[in-house]
UniProtKB/TrEMBL annotation:
Keywords: Membrane, Transmembrane, Transmembrane helix. InterPro entries: Tad_N. It comes from the Bacteria. This is Putative Flp pilus-assembly TadG-like N-terminal domain-containing protein. Residues 13-59 form the Putative Flp pilus-assembly TadG-like N-terminal domain. Pfam families: Tad. It comes from Bacillus taeanensis. The chain crosses the membrane at residues 15-39.
Length: 182
């Protein structure tokens, strides 16, 4: 009994015991933060690759084989892993392309706690459609022979002088160097 009282009164080495008990908790917190961050980045990369692939494939519809081919090629180039062709579904009647892919992500810290990998998946769908009756939209084309000199006036005309101009980088550059009247 005297020995138990002496052990309870003696606080030497208490920090070491607490530290040893907290190591798994600290390791789990660090591992969860690092591994969860990595999994989220990989999930976003997978989703971005799937989105880009179906958008690229939808441009080739209604040619199903070309759409599958370009979608698989774009996915492989962006995600870095070959996608099975069975994961790309084409509906020629509705002009839609759908891609579903599941992958496993290996973890860094969590294998020490028994979790080696996590499954991630992404699904993307795109539809090819025609713009119906565009109005007040005029393609803007300025010949390369037109000198880009400050002070040149370029007049654009459209139906009833109502024009929607979609500005791009080259158009913005041209507008800075030229005086454009609409």
């Amino acid at each position: 009994m005297k020995l138990v009282k002496q052990i309870l009164k003696d606080h030497k080495g208490q920090a070491v015991v607490l530290f040893v008990l907290m190591i798994p908790v600290l390791w789990g917190g660090i591992g969860l933060a690092v591994d969860l961050g990595y999994v989220m980045v990989q999930k976003q990369k997978l989703q971005d690759s799937a989105d880009f692939a179906v958008l690229s494939g939808a441009q080739k519809l209604p040619d199903a084989s070309a759409a599958i081919s370009i979608a698989a090629h774009v996915f492989n180039n962006n995600y870095g892993e070959a996608i099975p062709v069975e994961n790309i579904i084409i509906d020629v009647n509705s002009l839609t392309i759908k891609l579903h892919h599941t992958d496993k992500v290996s973890l860094f810290f969590m294998p020490l706690l028994g979790v080696n990998e996590v499954s991630i998946s992404a699904e993307a769908k795109a539809k090819s459609a025609v713009i119906y009756k565009p109005s007040a939209l005029i393609p803007l084309s300025i010949p390369h022979t037109l000198p880009v000199v400050k002070g040149i006036e370029v007049t654009l005309w459209g139906q009833d002088k109502k024009i929607l101009v979609i500005l791009g980088l080259s158009t913005r550059l041209l507008m800075e160097k030229c005086k454009i009247k609409i």
